[in-house]
Amino acid sequence: MNPRLQLAMTLADEASVMIRRAFAARRHTLIEKSANDFATDTDREVETMMAARIAADFPGDVLLGEEGGERVLGDVPANNVRWIVDPLDGTFNFVHGFPYVATSIAVEVDGAVQAGVIANPVSGEVFCAGKGFGAWLHRVDQPPVRLAVNCEHTLASGLIGSVLPSAASKSFELVLPAWLDVARRAGSIRRTGAAALDLAQVAAGRLDGFFVMSLSAWDAAAGALLVTEAGGVVCDFTGGNDFLTSNQVIAGSAVVAAELAAVLGQYAISSG
Predict the structure, then answer these.
(1) d(Cα 249, Cα 234) in Å, to the nearest integer?
(2) pLDDT by residue (tens digit) across 219-238?
(3) How deeply is 32 buried, as exposed, middle or buried, from its count of CB atoms within 10 A (0-12, 13-18, 19+)?
(4) What is the pLDDT of residues 149-170, one digit of tens each?
(5) Chain centre to alpha carbon of residue 197
(6) N or C: which terminal CB in the chain sees fewer CB atoms within 10 Å?
């Protein structure tokens, strides 16, 4: 296994231990970053742990994290490797004791994501992918299972994951028309509150598709690799590859992704 992918798996395991402990204790220090968008002391503690471990093993690697921004790790010049991490996706779920949260870790080399890991600390499932090596589900005491997207459904019969911001958010009125357009055409939509884990569910064939109008790189990078390595498609709202820049993400089987792009193309924004 690639040594950085191996470290990502280790970091996901260690993060899961920290998150499970805090999840069970239900005592959190909250920081409200924007309307109904929170971070906790656990988010920051997990990212700090990751930064220290990466700096020790791979000084010069760059870390882009949701809590700490982008920085070079270790007292050396930056190299061509960047880690893109969300230490705790689904923080609102986490503080309410709703068991749908994730840690997301991607490793990018020369601007291309080469490895991705998404762990659900509560269920113990760990989804991982290496570029060209497929996407896999790991469970404790069970052999890894290779993942494949579900190609049996269309949008009209599909179960689709999505994100809808709080009504208190400035983006709510912008997102809602696109969300409703898909809802009118989809079999059913699930809004779970942890987008990175939703992408892993697409790779596992549990969701037929996923779309979001504004998703940061730390939520999308690892999940996008999982979906493509599981035989799926990840694109922006125009059907192109600009999703990590535009932050508009569609994922699913080729059929469902194309159908979502046909609906959402009118809402595409230019990243330039």
Answers:
(1) 7
(2) 899 999 999 999 999 999 99
(3) exposed
(4) 999 999 999 999 998 877 777 7
(5) 6
(6) C
Half-sphere exposure for 263 (CA within 13 Å, toward CB): 23
Closest CA to 36 of 78, 83, 91, 74: 91
Residue found by looking up tokens 């998703």 in the block: 215
Note whether 66 and 85 are within 8 A (CB).
yes
Taken as a whole, the chain contains a residue count of 272
The two three-digit tokens of residue 82, written as one number: 């960047």
Report yes or no on whether pTM surpasses 0.70. yes
What sign has the CA pseudo-torsion 208, 251, 247, 66? positive
Q: Would you list the DSSP string of the chain?
A: --HHHHHHHHHHHHHHHHHHHHHHHT---EEEEETTEEEEHHHHHHHHHHHHHHHHHSTT-EEEETTTEEEE-SSS---SEEEEEEEEE-HHHHHHT-S--EEEEEEEETTEEEEEEEE-TTT--EEEEETTS-EEEE-TTS--EE-----S--GGG-EEEE----TTSTTHHHHHHHHHHHHTTSSEEEE-S-HHHHHHHHHTTSSSEEEESS--HHHHHHHHHHHHHTT-EEE-TTSSS-HHHH--EEEESHHHHHHHHHHHGGG-----
Beta-carbon neighbour count of residue 50 at 10 Å? 25
